[in-house]
UniProtKB/TrEMBL annotation:
Protein's organism: Desulfuribacillus alkaliarsenatis
Transmembrane segments: none
Residues covered by the Thioredoxin domain: 1-104
UniProt keyword terms in alphabetical order: Antioxidant, Oxidoreductase, Peroxidase, Redox-active center
PANTHER family, per database record: THIOL PEROXIDASE
Official protein name in the record: Alkyl hydroperoxide reductase
Length: 104
């Protein structure tokens, strides 16, 4: 998420809205983003009912946490790109920018 914040103007230049979603609570989101110095894009809590959104996207693990995943959803609500990767790995922003540029 911090890497998206660093590139927020580039995302906005591609007419894109970055949104973070996790199964953590709102107070947890608030504390986390404050520890980073703030986040300018929405952080959505999928805390209650626990994991409802992440489950619908197929990324809720049995132990109640979500996978680290990127989704590009176009203006019609169609998922155009999915990248699910290990939680400990940082995705490559250039890959997501390439996808976004193709959708322009």
């Amino acid at each position: 998420m911090p890497s998206y914040e660093k590139e927020i103007q580039r995302f906005e230049g591609l007419n894109t809205q970055v949104v973070g979603v996790s199964v953590d609570s709102v107070p947890s989101h608030d504390a986390w983003q404050k520890s980073l110095g703030g986040i300018s894009f929405p952080l959505c809590s999928d805390f209650y009912p626990h994991g409802e959104v992440t489950d619908k996207y197929g990324i809720l693990r049995a132990e109640g946490i979500s996978e680290r995943a990127l989704f590009v959803v176009d203006k019609e609500g169609i998922i155009r790109f999915i990248d699910v990767h290990p939680i400990e790995k940082q995705p490559n922003n250039e890959e997501i920018f390439a996808v976004l540029e193709k959708l322009q």
